[in-house]
Design goal:
This protein has 22 helices and 23 strands. By secondary structure, it is of the alpha+beta class. Strands 7-6-5-8-4-3-9-10 form an 8-stranded mixed β-sheet. It is elongated.
């Protein structure tokens, strides 16, 4: 046997736990705020009362309750009392061991089912606001009362109360705290009333708070969100308005018996901000767990704000979130099913209300149509989309034609909408979910087909000039391309409607990317501008001799101005006019003008003005593209 200085080196020794370090761990890494000490005490008090209701031989007078005396004034004590099942000396003897055991189990997200385990965590949370805790308790099982006094240095005392002390103590548990420096305001009446209301206003036992000027305030109110009425009551609507800041569009009952989860989902009367997520106010045994729990409802359900109470879902160590496990996944699925049933019921029984709902929450519902096969057939027809004939529902689009045509991006849509066939509206698929929904239409609606349109494809479908006019049109293309050579633009002459539109500046995706790189190159630092230039050259080399990647000016042979320019013999007037038509087409197509475009516009305007008044020396040699 090895010994050092007379001490057995192999002898087992208990760990020395620094309670201050444990409290620091709780306050910095588990609990979000010292405020939770009151929530933990209220949770412990509620559980003790429930335990007494279930196990005590005699019922509690009045059903049990909680009494709180805030610490108002210098040196005042905070007192928390319940008339629950109470503690015996054996229970008190286990407290420190229970604190460690329940803490570890909570840190690993295991259930806290025993009363002592929950009491231990509540005890530790009190050390965030006080460095000394006095607990006096009398068990409903009989026997003498007990007193436990603990400090943050890890020391404690425990003793049985004598006969007179026990007789003066009511059955239940009393916790006394003297606030730490800086914590007095947190334990004062104003803070305690606000926190107790926030955490426990819906508890099924009264919570009474002593007021500094005498009397007491009971913070409880009915949990109206647990009502099982088929139609929302006035009280429930009023609660929903309090929660949302506006009268809810509707209230959807939520019931999941498998996890003892009940509540209500309030349908927002307004569209939530872009990027916002659904959130749920969750109560655990009617005690507030969190006001914005974001993993309980499905991701697509951001058109509702739910309030639920659960007994079967498991909280994390901080008791401010839910543990992601099979129970939570099952509950999330069941809640999503309840929301889908509500939509289906509205479609069958109140289609006008469904139309109002869709108008408010079209983005959320588009997400639902994309991801939910069951609801896609019901909702898709009601959704609104932008088309070349104006805003329409998909049902109206399909009534016009069973062959639905759509553009993949907003930019492509803007280009093809300018000259597309008005009798067959083109859908703008560039907004969120619209392309996915249109592509799903053949699976949703029988007999419907879809086609993606492209700029170059639609341009190729435009009418060529009449055979007799083609020589003149071909000459117009060559002359216009020469006038625009400084801006790298191809020219086509086609006939399209409306006739008052002289030209279109169209670009395929490659051309749009090239234009974007050129615009960035103008404003980028030299090094980055050089990189962009090389990228553009590499892209051009990859495309080779193909026209793709260049802007294309489509001149409208049906337009009188274009026909006039085709017959114009004055090269100076022709080139400046074509340049202005080009710039006009860019602006009409929402294209930003690049440096070369701006220089050409200034030069063309200047030369045309001087030509119109007959001044000598114009057009200037340097501005003449030829």
């Amino acid at each position: 046997m090895s010994r050092t200085d007379g001490v057995d080196a192999r002898a087992s020794r208990p760990f020395q736990v620094d309670l201050r370090g444990v409290v620091d761990l709780l306050s910095r890494h588990i609990y979000s705020s010292p405020q939770v000490f009151l929530r933990e005490l209220m949770q412990n008090g509620r559980d003790a009362v429930v335990a007494r209701r279930q196990h005590a031989v005699e019922p509690i007078a009045g059903g049990g309750g909680i009494w709180i005396t805030p610490a108002d004034g210098e040196g005042a004590e905070f007192v928390f009392r319940d008339d629950g099942i109470g503690l015996t000396l054996a229970d008190v003897g286990e407290l420190l061991a229970t604190v460690g055991r329940s803490s570890k189990r909570d840190l690993f997200d295991l259930p806290r089912t025993d009363y002592l385990g929950q009491f231990g965590i509540g005890l530790l949370s009190c050390f965030m606001v006080a460095d000394r805790i006095v607990i006096r308790s009398r068990s409903a099982a009989g026997g003498p009362g007990v007193e436990w006094i603990g400090a943050t240095d890890g020391t404690y005392t425990a003793r049985e109360l004598d006969e007179h002390e026990t007789a003066a103590l009511a059955i239940g548990t009393e916790v006394r705290l003297v606030p730490l420096a800086g914590m007095s305001e947190l334990l004062s009446s104003a803070s305690v009333v606000a926190l107790a209301t926030r955490f426990g206003e819906f508890l099924d036992l009264p919570v009474r708070i002593a007021l500094p000027r005498g009397g007491e305030e009971t913070i409880n109110r009915d949990a109206v969100f647990l009502q099982s009425n088929a139609e929302p009551t006035a009280e429930l609507v009023a609660y929903g308005a309090e929660l949302l800041g506006a009268t809810p569009f509707d209230a959807i009952p939520l019931v999941v018996p498998g996890t003892a989860t009940r509540g209500v989902a309030f349908v927002l009367p307004y569209a939530p901000p872009p990027g916002s997520r659904q959130s749920t106010r969750v109560y655990l045994g009617r005690m507030l767990l969190g006001e914005r729990i974001d993993e309980l409802l499905p991701d697509w359900a951001f058109f509702v704000r739910a309030v639920i109470d659960t007994e079967g879902l498991q909280p994390t160590a901080s008791r401010e979130q839910l543990v992601e496990n099979e129970s939570l996944e099952y509950t999330r699925s069941e809640l999503g099913a309840a929301l889908r049933r509500w939509i289906l019921q509205k479609a069958l029984a109140e289609p006008h209300r469904l139309a109002e709902f869709v108008a408010i929450h079209h983005v959320a519902l588009k997400s639902l149509v994309v991801h939910d096969d069951e609801l896609a057939g019901v909702l898709a027809r009601w959704l609104s989309v932008e088309t070349s004939a104006g805003p329409m529902t998909l049902d109206a689009v399909m009534q016009r034609s069973a062959h639905v045509r759509y553009a993949e991006t907003v930019d492509e849509f803007r280009q093809v909408a300018a000259f597309g066939d008005r009798s067959s509206p083109i859908v703008n698929g560039g907004y969120i979910y619209d392309s996915e929904i249109v592509r799903r239409l053949p699976d949703i609606v029988a007999g419907v087909t879809v086609e993606r349109v492209t700029v170059l494809g639609e341009l190729d479908n435009l009418d060529s000039p009449p055979m007799a006019d083609r020589p003149l049109a071909h000459t117009l293309e060559e002359r216009a391309a020469e006038a625009l050579r400084q801006v790298s633009c191809d020219v086509d002459v086609r006939g399209f409607e409306p006739a008052d539109l002289p030209a279109l500046a169209v670009a395929d995706p490659d051309a749009l990317r090239s234009i974007g790189r050129a615009a960035a190159q103008e404003t980028a630092p030299p090094l980055w501008g050089s990189v962009l230039g090389r990228v553009d050259k590499a892209a051009a080399a990859h495309r080779g001799a193909q026209a793709s990647g260049r802007l294309r000016l489509c001149l409208n042979w049906n337009n009188p101005l274009v026909r006039t320019l085709a017959a114009t013999n004055d090269d100076a007037v022709f080139s400046r006019s074509i340049q202005l038509v080009y710039v006009q087409a860019l602006l009409a197509g929402h294209r930003p003008l690049q440096a070369a475009d701006r220089r050409m516009l200034t030069s063309a305007l200047s030369d045309l003005v001087h030509l119109s008044v007959g001044l000598p020396g114009y057009p200037s040699q340097e501005s003449d593209p030829s």
